[in-house]
Structures are given as structure tokens and as C-alpha cells.
Amino acid sequence: MSSLFFREVDSHFTTPVPDSFILTKMPSANGVYVKVYLYVLNGYLRRRNDLTLSAVADALSLLESEVVEALRYWNAQGVLRLTADKTNGSYTIRFGSDETPDFPDDPKGTSPKKAGKEAQRQKVIRVEQRPNYTPDEMLVYKNTDPNVTELFTTAQEMLGIPLSHPNQSILISFYDYYRLPIDVIFFLLDYCVKRDKRDLRYIEKVAMDWSDHDIHSVKDAETYVHRFDFYLPILRELHISASQPSDEAIRMIDQWHESFGMSPEMMQEAARRAFERTKSSNPKSKLNYMNRILEGWHNQGITDLGGVEKADEVFKSRSEETRGYASAGGLNNFSETNNYNYEEILEASKRRLMQHYEQKKEN
To answer: Between the CA of residue 318 and those of 305, 309, 324, 344, 347, what are the distances in Å?
Structure first.
């Protein structure tokens, strides 16, 4: 009987594709998506460092936006992990996970199990920033999608500026690249214009942030911006300049609001006092000083501005009494003609000082 012999194939000339992809993912997927997946997978296995969004698009004769769309699709399917980098708008792509160990073998001979853990730690490819749409590409969008024409017309009215080609490219990226619905984009523009932020570079940063936080409805956007409108006025009173609150600031403000029961007005008042009293320009130092103020109010049971005013009056009164005690202790010169019982004055002063000390201990 004749036997069949299989020649060993050099791994440098092959791209192993997981069976799970071929059998369960590929049959129902768009052919363009499959092309992108295979090309990116090949780049991963070859450890290519020059693989960019435009390189993939050029190699496959696609638009850059089509490449991004394919990557987002495979991310949703769980075939790869697509993570946005907020600092520069690029992406990190990882293949495999602990839950799905069926991913390609490492070219260097690493076992599949080990390769999966490595894939989570390593940057496989980096995809460059959003695409710069050419006039021809934008013309295609205008002719095929009425939302794009409406977007340009409405945006020009809201921003009050003519839309140059670069501005149109940024605007269309909100819809095509960041995948924000048209009504959310209009809400975004209105939100920024009301805050006198009309520069599209600035607005793009907000769009990127909303996209990263899965803001896909006006209701989601309203909830999200309300959250930021809650924190930023407090930070402004501390003279902390930030377009978005830091995670540490959010954590501390949430604690003051939820655990201490402090209203935004109370926190703004504490922020004003912290800024006036601390000499540090370090945001963390200002927040820590503000925390001491609010913690003190909380321990005294002060929950509103009226309580703060009363506490200020008590403090002022005690300060004046303390100065009076010092005066009664002999700082003033008394003439011999004054008929004062100095022993009684001294005893009364001691009693008042002891009362003051006991009250301070109770507080």
C-alpha cells in the first residue's frame, strides 16, 4: 500500500489560523473583514513594527476607515482585543485571552498556552491616528450617506465658521471613525459651543473620550457630561486647571459627597478656603488640604453653608475671648485708682480658660 508523506513546511512561510476562526467566525463575516484579519494576523506573527493603519489599507486596497471598521468588528466578535490609547488616538491589538486559548502558535516555538499569556502583555501592532479623509473619499460619503451632508451643514451653523477640508475630515471622523451617531455628534457640538469651545481639535478630544466610554446615545451623553459638570466647578475653585478630572479627584469628591454628605456648594466653599490657605501648587496637596477641611466639618456635624457660618462665628468669638484672657492676665496697665478685685478676676479668668479647654476637647 502506498503511503502519504507530508513535507514539513517552514513556519516563516505560513500563517497558522485558529480552527475556531475558520469554523465559527469566518463563514458569517464580511469578506473585507476576513482580509483585514488575515493580514493583521500575519503582521503579528512576523513581529512587524511598521504595521500602521495606512499600511494595511494600502496593501488591501481599502479605505483606512474600512480597516478600522473591520478591527472593531473582530473586537466585538472576541477574535482580538482592540484597545484605544487616549494619548495619541492609536490602537493596541492583542490576539487570544485566557478564556480562549485557541490562538496561533508563536513563531519562536512558544507553546499555545504560554503564547496566550504573552499576547496579553505584548503590543502586537500599533494603528496610527484617525484617517485623514481625501476629498474623493468625503465625496463618496456625501453621495451615499445623507447623514454626512446634514452633519456638515448643521456643524457649520453651530460652530459659526466655514468648514475647510481639514475641518470636514475631523467632523466625518466623529461619524465614521469614532462611530458616534449623528444626534450624539450634534449634542457634542452644542455642549462644546455652550462652553465657548469651538476649535475642532479640542472637540475631537471630547469625541475620542466619548467613543472610548461607549457613548452611543444622547441619554448616555447627558449622563456623562452631567458627571463632569459636577466635578469641574469644584476643581476650578481649587485652581486646578483640567479639561477632565483625574481619577484621584473623582474618587475624593465622590467620597466627600457620598460618605460625608457634602453638597457641591459645600465642596466649592471648602475648595476656596483650601486654595487661599495652602501655598502649594501641587493639585494633590490642594485636594488633601481640602479633605482636612471637609473632614473637620463632617466631624462637627456641619452639612450646609449655614452651619459653616455659625462655626466661623464661634471660632471668631473664641479667638476674641482668648485675646481678652491674655489682657486680663496682666497685659493692660491698671491705675491704682481702679477698684478691681484682682484675685476674683484671676479666678474668673481661670474658670473661663478651663471651660474653653473642655469645649475644645468635646469638639
So the answer is: 20, 14, 10, 21, 19
Residue 320 is predicted with a pLDDT of: 66
Round to whole Å and give the CA distance between 103 and 21. Answer: 9
State the Cα–Cα distance between residues 262 and 260, nearest whole angstrom: 5
Total Cβ atoms within 10 A of residue 167: 18
**Once rounded to an integer, what is the mean pLDDT over residues 64-92?**
79
Q: Which three cell numbers stand for residue 295?
A: 473632614
Q: Reduce the DSSP state of residue 92 to 3 states and report it.
A: strand
**Angle, helices 247-258/218-237, rounded to nearest 10 degrees:** 90
Cα atoms found within 13 Å of the Cα of residue 267, Cβ hemisphere only: 25
CA angle at 278 for the pair 275 and 280, rounded to the nearest 5°: 100
pTM equals 0.46
Q: Under the phi-then-psi rule, with left for phi > 0, alpha for psi from -120 to 50, and beta for the rest, what region is 78?
A: left
Chain segment 305-332, per-residue pLDDT in tens? 998 998 888 877 776 666 655 554 444 4
Q: What share of the chain is helix, strand, coil (3-state, %, to 5)?
A: 65, 5, 35
Tell me, what amino acid is at 284? K
- Cα–Cα distance for residue pair 193/186, rounded to 1 Å: 11
Among residues 170, 174, 225, 224, the alpha carbon closest in space to that of 199 is found at: 170
